[in-house]
């Protein structure tokens, strides 16, 4: 009788352990299906549902930037494109500054770090339409082809590649504003001054020896 009870207890414990392991495995699979594993920010593949959530997040970040009236974004597959709406009376230099600020605000985000930022009205409207197409169930392949085309034809600001602008040398900056003949004369003069300075340094060294 004691042996029977012992065997029954062992079998019961074994079954309980198996059930617990199975439950943990199922739970782990459910969690893994909801997690996006970001191996590399430049190699993120995003599906339809997740893309809409990420798009809303990038729009929120972009609209925090001063002088951005509105923003839209499409994130799908390896592509993330953010369109911003700015005042139409701003000059190109000012618009570029705003785009740079938006890029700065996105560069630490795993998806925003590789986002393409557009500020022209046509692209903004098209991105809005593409966002609606995704919500309405348009085939993803078609949307991705359009995104690839947009990315390929623009010269975007890409946050992950942001570099601090290098201040031009004052002399070089002035040179760019001169006519070509005067520019050549100035360059020759600067070269002569540099050569004279080197000759003086050599003369001093010889004299000291």
Could you please describe the fold and organization of this structure?
By secondary structure, this protein is mainly alpha-helical. Helix content is 61%, strand content 8%. Helix 3 (92-106) links the parallel strand 2 and strand 3. Strands 1-2-3 form a 3-stranded mixed sheet, sandwiched between helices. Helix 2 packs across helix 3 (92-106). It folds into 2 domains: 1-35; 48-161, Alpha-Beta Plaits, CATH 3.30.70.1350. The longest helix has 33 residues, at 2-34. 20% of the residues are buried.
How are the secondary structure elements laid out?
Elements: H1 2-34, H2 48-63, E1 70-76, E2 79-85, H3 92-106, E3 116-118, H4 121-135, H5 140-153, H6 170-175, H7 180-208
Parallel strand pairs: 2-3
Antiparallel strand pairs: 1-2
Helix pairs in contact: 2-3
In short:
This protein is mostly helical. The chain has helices spanning 2-34, 48-63, 92-106, 121-135, 140-153, 170-175, 180-208; strands at residues 70-76, 79-85, 116-118.
- Overall outline: elongated
| Helix fraction by DSSP (H/I, runs of at least 4) | 55-70%
The H-and-E topology, N to C, reads as HHEEHEHHHH
Number of contiguous helices? 7
Query: How far from one another are the termini?
Result: 112 Å
CATH topology of the largest domain: Alpha-Beta Plaits
CATH superfamily of the largest domain: Cation efflux protein, cytoplasmic domain
- In terms of structural class, how would the helical and strand content be classed? mainly alpha
How much of the polypeptide forms β-strand, as a percent range?
Answer: 5-15%
For the secondary structure, the number of strands is 3
- The total number of structural domains is 2
CATH class of the largest domain: Alpha Beta
Major beta sheet summary: 3 strands, mixed
List low-confidence stretches. Answer: 2-44, 163-168, 170-178
Mean pLDDT: 68
Strand order within the widest beta sheet: 1-2-3
Overall radius of gyration: 31 Å
């Amino acid at each position: 009788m004691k042996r029977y009870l012992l065997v029954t207890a062992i079998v019961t414990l074994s079954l309980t352990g198996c059930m617990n392991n199975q439950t943990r495995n199922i739970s782990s699979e459910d969690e893994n299906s909801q997690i996006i594993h970001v191996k590399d920010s430049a190699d993120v593949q995003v599906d339809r549902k997740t893309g809409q959530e990420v798009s809303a997040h990038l729009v929120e970040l972009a609209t925090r930037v001063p002088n951005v009236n509105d923003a839209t974004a499409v994130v799908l597959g390896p592509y993330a494109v953010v369109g911003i709406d700015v005042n139409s009376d701003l000059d190109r230099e000012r618009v570029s500054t705003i785009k740079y600020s938006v890029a700065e605000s996105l560069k630490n985000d795993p998806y925003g770090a590789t986002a393409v930022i557009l500020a022209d009205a046509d692209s903004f409207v098209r991105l809005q339409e593409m966002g609606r197409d995704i919500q309405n169930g348009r085939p993803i392949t078609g949307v991705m082809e359009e995104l690839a085309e947009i990315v390929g034809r623009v010269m975007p600001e890409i946050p992950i590649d942001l570099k601090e602008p290098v201040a031009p040398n004052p002399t070089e900056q002035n040179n760019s504003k001169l006519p070509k003949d005067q520019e050549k004369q100035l360059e020759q003069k600067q070269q002569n001054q540099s050569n004279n300075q080197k000759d003086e340094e050599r003369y001093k060294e010889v004299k000291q020896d």
